[in-house]
Write a structure and sequence with these properties.
CATH topology of the largest domain: Aldehyde Dehydrogenase, Chain A, domain 1
Structural class: alpha/beta
Number of helices: 15
Distance between the termini: 69 Å
CATH class of the largest domain: Alpha Beta
CATH superfamily of the largest domain: Aldehyde Dehydrogenase, Chain A, domain 1
Shape: globular
Strand content: 15-25%
Radius of gyration: 23 Å
Number of strands: 21
Largest sheet: 7 strands, mixed
Length: 480
């Protein structure tokens, strides 16, 4: 069984906060690693190491940092099988169908950051004074505190870490306590790529103590975080006015109109509901279906659920693995129980599956009769569930979709171009997908929440991440 150390200032160190904690695989129930825990002194040491590294990074040209970023990508690609196996071990996602593609996406994120930073141009602004010239430049923000979740333990960190390295920020990173093995792989790629020591510091430990200690540390100048809306509020308070890049909760709605291509819609809904066992921030969480096509959509979703193969993530035939933890499984239990008590009907699945190594293998589930106020309608279930509710007209559908406190991604299926534009403009989400599931995403495009909702601040994706992780400086030159 592996022992995972902390990375501080380019050196691997044991944690000082008591004994290492055991990590258990949701797929097998086995203990697979012992994870060292950081204490407050090690947080201070990591921040100081990052502050020192930032000076070296800031002095590099964008092309020099881009070369290092490409080197990290090269190493991720070379080690893809090993990394993906650990992703499957600690998350439970199918190795070939989901874990390997996740590592491949992370490689492209680092490459995109490397190429994008070389083209991050700024402007020369016309001057009202003939004796002056006004130029702008972009500079790194300094030391970033990065907090990342467990559901995509390689790609989500890569959004921040690739852009952070390319733009010259040093980083103190606390990954989820559920996915430390994936994090160690990324950190080793940084070290082995020859990135200046202290550029990336990796700390494991208690979320509140270590995560809170990083975010509130006076030496940390900016914060990036992906996670729940609740955690985002805590982070924003602890950051106390620092620049924030937050990607938070979704509870994403899909509207299926009566003129939609139903075969295509159902196939894509199946992906949106069941990919990664429904554990995606932009998973389909609410399916709003026109009453006239309700039965056909529900029947199609049942067929999609029946076609899935629930099993070990290392079985090549598996298309659905376990959920990651008892907390997630219990939330699915609670949401389904609440829905059925309030009048909903489970038409397929609805329980944990027997005959597997752990109790975290959940049957793909289709439930109809969802109505306003049910937990499954108001909160993210974050499990392999397709919840269906009906509407009678466009206005009602949009109003129901917009009831959520979150506003990350929405989608709709229709053949009517006018309706597609009207509804896309009316949905209170930061991203709208037309004739595609909410879970569709290209990593180089801007991704983030709608203002006034609880889905985050700023935009991740391609050049937008680079812009968020740099600060604009105006320089006025006297030429007289």
């Amino acid at each position: 069984m592996r022992t995972l150390d902390l990375l501080i200032g380019g050196e691997w160190r044991p944690g000082a906060a008591g004994d290492p904690l055991a990590l258990t695989s949701p797929a097998t129930g086995d203990e697979v690693a012992m994870v060292h825990q950081a204490d407050s002194d090690q947080i201070d040491a990591a921040v100081e190491a990052a502050r020192s590294a930032h000076c070296s990074l800031a002095a590099m040209t964008a092309f020099e940092r881009a070369a290092l970023t490409h080197r990290v990508a090269d190493l991720l690609a070379e080690r893809a099988d090993e990394i993906a196996r650990d992703v499957s071990t600690e998350v439970g996602k199918p190795f070939r169908a989901e874990a390997l593609p996740e590592v491949a996406a992370a490689v492209e994120m680092f490459r995109d950051a490397a190429e994008g930073v070389k083209r991050l141009e700024t402007s020369v602004i016309p001057s009202a004074d003939p004796g002056k010239r006004v130029i702008t430049i972009r500079q790194p923000r300094g030391v970033y505190g990065i907090l990342t979740p467990w559901n995509f333990p390689v790609t989500i960190p890569s959004e921040y870490l690739g852009a952070g390295l390319a733009t010259g920020n040093a980083m103190v990173w606390k990954p989820s306590e559920l996915t430390p093995m994936s994090a160690e792989h990324i950190a080793r790629c940084f070290v082995d790529a020859g990135v200046p020591a202290g550029t990336l510091n990796l700390l494991f430990g208690d979320p509140a103590m270590v995560g809170g200690g990083i975010i509130s540390h006076p030496g940390v100048t900016a914060v990036g975080m992906t996670g729940s809306s609740r955690t985002g509020r805590i982070v924003a308070d602890a950051a106390a006015g620092k620049p924030l890049l937050l990607e938070l909760g979704g509870n994403c709605p899909v509207l299926v109109f009566d003129d939609a291509d139903l075969d295509s819609a159902v196939a894509k809904l199946g992906v949106g509901c069941f990919a990664n066992a429904g554990q995606i921030c932009d998973s389909v969480e609410r399916i709003l279906v026109h009453r006239s096509v309700h039965d056909r959509v529900v029947s199609g979703l049942v067929d999609q659920a029946k076609a899935l193969r629930l099993g070990s993530p290392f079985d090549d035939d598996t298309t659905l693995g376990p959920v990651i933890s008892e907390a997630v499984a219990s939330r699915v239990d609670a949401h389904l129980a609440d829905a059925t008590v309030r009048g909903a009907t489970i038409v397929h699945g609805g329980a944990r599956a027997n005959g597997h190594p752990t109790g975290l293998y959940y049957q793909p589930t289709v439930v109809e009769g969802i109505s306003d106020g049910m937990l499954i309608e108001t909160e993210e279930t974050f499990g392999p569930v397709a919840p269906v509710m009906v509407f009678d007209d466009e206005e009602e559908a949009v109003a129901a979709a917009n009831r959520s406190a979150t506003g990350l991604v929405g989608s709709l299926f229709t053949r009517d171009v006018g309706r597609a534009i009207r509804v896309a403009e009316a949905l209170q989400t930061g991203v709208v997908n037309v004739n595609e599931t909410t879970a569709y995403w290209q990593p180089h495009t801007p991704f983030g929440g709608y203002s006034g909702k609880q889905s985050g601040l700023g935009r991740l994706g391609g050049r937008w991440t680079l812009l968020e992780m740099t600060q604009l400086k105006t320089i006025n030159l006297d030429i007289t």
